[in-house]
Amino acid sequence: MSQSWPPAPQQPQQPYQPPQAPYGAPAPGGFPPPTAPPAANRGNAGLAVVLGVLAMLVAAGIYGAVLKAVNGASIGYAALAVGALIGAVLGKAGGRNAALPVVGAVLGLLGLYLGQVFGITLISSDILGIPLTEVVFNHFDLVHAAWKDYLGAIDLVFYLLAAAGGFQVAKKLGS
Length: 175
Prior knowledge:
Elements: H1 45-69, H2 76-94, H3 100-128, H4 132-138, H5 140-150, H6 153-174
């Protein structure tokens, strides 16, 4: 004789859940906890100097064109802008390099000089009615002499503005 037991009550089946790790431990097979992103390797001083020289040439060309447009009248904001443009390029491309603000000041001075010489060259080309290349290659001694005569006491302030712009902007944007 076989005895039949009453059937066991049917319970709903629970969905499968993988075992959970204790609080704070990484889940098995899961992703590692997020970490801080690595510090950006910002700053290539060599590239910054190359780009700074290119920015200096562009700024000098623009400054020379402005001088020609205003018949040789110097503009302080334009001198500051020459240095600031160079400093911005150096600071953005070079990052936190302590030498780049000094490079910005030097390139600011050189950019302003080249801009003034270029402006005098443009004006001389127009006055003499000869091509710009001829003035540069055949009469640069006259252009340089005209630049020396062009300099006034206010130009010292303009050179200081260009150097300060290059230094300060490179320093601020580099940090």
